[in-house]
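Tip: read the tokens left to right.
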């Protein structure tokens, strides 16, 4: 049993795309915290920010990260803010998704094309 591989980066950096590629290459399942949040709530990220504010959204995000981290051998595309708060990093670390330099990959890039135009978040 091995730890999950967490991909971290700014919004639009390509975490979800890279997660799919890495997951396919390593034969691991892929999870995306933004997709999970939308699945749990049935709401868009901007709607959740508008209704609950950043604090409320980050609390939900922490719960999603904790849940995903109970699984093993995942490639997890962490939402851009998922490692901003100490409690989120500690929660992930307790659940074997260490958010430190040994188990995370930082992606960087610029949003481009149609996705960049339609994907606007606070």
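Filled-in amino acids:
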């Amino acid at each position: 049993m091995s730890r999950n591989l967490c991909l971290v980066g700014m919004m639009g950096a390509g975490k979800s795309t890279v997660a799919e590629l890495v997951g396919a290459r390593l034969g691991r399942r892929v999870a995306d915290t933004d997709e999970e949040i939308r699945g749990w709530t049935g709401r868009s990220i901007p709607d959740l920010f508008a209704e609950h504010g950043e604090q409320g959204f980050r609390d939900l995000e922490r719960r999603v990260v904790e849940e995903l981290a109970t699984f093993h051998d995942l490639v997890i595309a962490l939402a851009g803010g998922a490692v901003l708060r100490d409690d989120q990093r500690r929660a992930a670390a307790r659940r074997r998704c260490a958010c430190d330099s040994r188990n995370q990959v930082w992606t960087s890039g610029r949003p481009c094309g149609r996705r960049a135009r339609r994907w606007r978040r606070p």
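The chain has five helices and four strands. Confidence is low (pLDDT under 50) at residues 98-104, 106-122.
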